[in-house]
Amino acid sequence: MKILVVGGGGREHAITWKLAQSANPVELFAAPGNPGMARHATCVDIKADDLDGIARFAVAEGIGLVSVGPEVPLCLGLADRLRGAGVPVFGPDARAAAIEGSKRFAKELMRKYRIPTAAFDAFSRFEDARDYARSLDGDMWIKASGLAAGKGAVYAPDPVEAERILREIMVESVFGESGSEVVIEENMTGEEASIFAVCDGETFKTLVSSQDHKRALDGDEGPNTGGMGAYAPAPLITSDLLARIEKEILQPTLDGMAMEGRPYRGLLYAGIMVTPDGPRVVEYNCRFGDPETQAVLPLLDGDLADIMYASAVGKIHNVRVGAKDGSALCVVMASGGYPGSYGKGYPITGLEDALRDDTVQVFHAGTEMRDGQVVTASGRVLGVTAWGKSFMEAREHAYGAVKKIIFKDAFCRSDIGHRALKHYVQKTRGA
Q: What is the pLDDT of residue 429?
């Protein structure tokens, strides 16, 4: 089978890497891809949001399956375009992708189908949003309703700060059109985890749980980012809790989407807050998370090509989706200044040295080739992932590999997995 992976980041590199391990013969293509993906796939110079270009290529090349990585092309209707041309797609159509593309839609879906989430209201006028924020007694989250590259959720400790944030989003348009409508919701207390479900419109199978680290600096300090690292599984998510999430959140979400005439096929990502009252939805995404995918896929026990195809054709019940024993951990190496301004084009050395450890894979997130040299090209540059029989083993190997990779102004968090670390330390002391 010929498979096309749409995208060029760390998530897409991890998907391509896992697809290359299929037991069946596959020929992989990537649009646009990156230097890391080029190890496994033929990269074609088509941007991820070039819907016409991707559809033309898929038809002309006889592509048998397209895996769409980023949310933007899904929300723009890439899956619709491809399915209309007879090409199977792993990913939701535009109406279903609204579960991420419109936070207002997602929150109202949860309210209608009694899916547990934070109390909220939504606004398209600044004055109304301001007045609502003033009426609240404590802290809150203000979220741009549209797509904002994972950076559209801002915490407000009080109504005064909320008004300043609302003015930035709705009046000064710091997130562009994505902030023309906002959701204001209560601040939930608890610990957060990421749950991935492979869906076929009616049913689903879950992958191993994970936890992301959004803040730029150690101790969960600094500004929000697209993600500075992740690990899997999350010890927070026990088998009993996962069963509850599947029953109270995932299945009602699929059922609700079907009732709304928006059957969901592809990867449904549910950000879950485990509160004292049980699991609640923080948000949905219509695709694999980044960098959680880089920690989850090394632990997948199953053929990703078969799994994606079964989702695309409505037969997810026919494939095995299991989890390997052990843990995996991904450390993001970023450019100095990220998530603000940063330099580009700095040579990266040590990649091959890091890959000599057979428990390590370096996923390219923001790189390009220049005169035969891999150089930095974005804020998040690499996702250095390792796996092992234990969490501590995976963590040790990941940070060991990080030390071998060098580029100007590189930085990373030194505490990825700190919540899991506390869990395992407490478990050991308890034993």
A: 59
Give the whole-angstrom CA distance, residue 332 versus residue 384.
Answer: 6
What is the SS3 assignment for 34? coil
Which of the 8 DSSP states describes residue 349?
A: B
* Residues 6 or more apart in contact with residue 141 via CB below 8 angstroms: 118, 153, 154, 155, 156, 184, 185, 186, 187
Q: What does the block give as tokens for 348?
A: 């990266």
The neighbour count for residue 128, using CB atoms within 10 Å, is 15
362 phi, psi to nearest 5 deg = -105, 115
Closest among 381, 410, 414 to 396, alpha carbons compared: 414
Q: What is the tally of helices (H) and strands (E) in the chain?
A: 15, 25
Instruction: From residue 246, give the alpha-carbon distance in Å to each of 156, 198, 241, 268.
Output: 31, 12, 9, 12
* 182, two tokens: 């906002």
> Can you give the pLDDT at residue 148?
85
CB 256 within 8 A of CB 357: no
- 73 and 83 Cβ atoms separated by less than 8 Å: no
Residue/partner pairs of 250-253 with CB below 8 Å, 24 or more apart: 250/195, 250/197, 250/204, 250/206, 251/204, 252/113, 252/114, 252/115, 253/99, 253/109, 253/110, 253/113, 253/115, 253/284
Weakly modelled stretches of the chain, pLDDT under 50: none
Tell me the per-residue pLDDT of 130-149, one tens digit each, with 9 for 90 and over.
Answer: 999 999 988 999 999 999 87
The token duo for 318 is 């026919």
* Bridge partners, 103 (sequence order): none
3-state secondary structure 105-124: HHHHHHHHCCCCECCEEEEC
Name the amino acid, one letter, at 105.
F
Torsion of CA 396, 400, 403, 405, to 10 degrees: -120
Q: Are 316 and 198 in contact (CB under 8 A)?
A: yes
Among candidate residues 305, 297, 301, the one with its CA nearest the CA of residue 3: 305
